[in-house]
Amino acid sequence: MSDFSATGYQPVSVSDPEVAALVGQDLPEDAFREIRDILFTVKGFDLDSYKDRCIKRRIAARIRQLGFPHISGYVACLAAEPTEQLALLEALTIHVSQFFRNPTTFMVLEKKILPALLRTRPAGRELRLWSAGCAMGEEPYSLALLCDELCNSPEQITIYATDISNDILKKARQGRYEPHRVAEVPDSVLKRYFTLEEGFYRLNDRLRKRVRFFHNDILNDRPFHRVDLILCRNMLIYFSPPQQEHILKTFAAALVAGGYLVLGRSETMISETRELFECVNAAERIYRKKADDVKEDD
Ligand SMILES: C[S@@+](CC[C@H](N)C(=O)[O-])C[C@H]1O[C@@H](n2cnc3c(N)ncnc32)[C@H](O)[C@@H]1O
After folding, report:
1. Residue 5 — very low, low, confident or very high, per pLDDT cuts 50/70/90?
2. 292 confidence band (pLDDT: 50, 70, 90)
3. Which domains does the chain have, with CATH numbers?
4. Pick from 65, 76, 145, 235: CA 20 to 30 A from residue 112's CA?
5. How do residues 178-217 score in pLDDT, each as one tens digit?
6. Ligand 1 centre and the CA of 288: distance in Å?
7. How confident is the model at residue 9 (pLDDT cuts 50, 70, 90)?
């Protein structure tokens, strides 16, 4: 049993319906709607589009963790406190990832997409790759590993990695992983680029420095420009269809004509964005920006 004395928590009767809801680890619909509206208004984050059935339970857990005996007190706090808005988003955002997640996608990147980009780029122009929603860095570091193997001068490739969560970005910069997160990394690559430290695999400094991490809210912040390849996998599923469309248009504006976009396995183009991209590999959700359909945002 937790010791709540530091939080000022006072035991209350579970016959109170608000408290009973929290004890039952669920959240009444009206409280959920209030919390949803606050997050949508102040952060543009739409809980309705969250596919995660546990969302209400996680909000209830956050309220209990803070020691609020009543939901209404928490809702008032959330409305008034930007720090709690961020903390709740942090508690709700899932950072699951893995090196070379969906290995066949990375095989296509290694064998086809990256060699084509390296071959066709204008002489002297750097390649710009972007992992949007990078979680703990597994995805952009996987790209860095591929680039290191494929290119004699990998310093001509810039890899940007962005996420909305500052906490997760801090961990990503450390490049230190539990064994299950590197399960798809071939042994030879593990030996060459990682050291085992107290049960964690740590990526070497040279590769870590290849990835430039930035905080970026994909809904509200400015994107990068003249990007050749964007990986945005398993993030669109968090958003409502209009927000997905907005994000896909943002990517179209960020990409050079002919640049590639890779989505997650359960994500796809919607409505008008189908006109902006052609599909080059349906199974791996790889798309290519059509020429001239969208003005590049210089
Ligand atoms: C499930 S992870 C995906 C990680 C990686 N792309 C992969 O497929 O393995 C989704 C990431 O999206 C981030 N995210 C959620 N909303 C975001 C937003 N509005 N802007 C940027 N990143 C966001 C989360 O913090 C989380 O790290």
Report:
1. very low
2. low
3. 5-92 (1.10.155), 103-289 (3.40.50.150)
4. 235
5. 998 999 899 999 999 999 999 999 999 999 999 999 999 8
6. 21
7. very low
Band (pLDDT 50/70/90 cuts) for residue 268 is very high
Q: How many beta carbons lie within 10 A of that of residue 178, not counting itself? A: 11
Among protein residues, the one with the nearest Cα to ligand 1's atom 10 is 235
The percent of the chain in helix, strand and coil, each rounded to the nearest 5, is: 45, 15, 35
Query: Residues 6 or more apart from 3 whose CB is under 8 A from it?
Result: none
Tokens of 288: 């290519």
pLDDT tier at 52, thresholds 50, 70, 90: low
234 C-beta closer than 6 A to ligand 1: yes
Beta-bridged to residue 230, according to DSSP, are 130, 261
Q: Is 289 in the pocket of ligand 1 (CB under 6 A)?
A: no
CA of 247 to the centre of ligand 1 (A): 13
How many angstroms separate the alpha carbon of residue 19 from the centre of ligand 1?
Answer: 32
Q: Ligand 1 centre from 218 Cα, in Å? A: 9
Q: Is 86 in the pocket of ligand 1 (CB under 6 A)?
A: no
The H-or-E segment that residue 191 falls in is helix 187-193
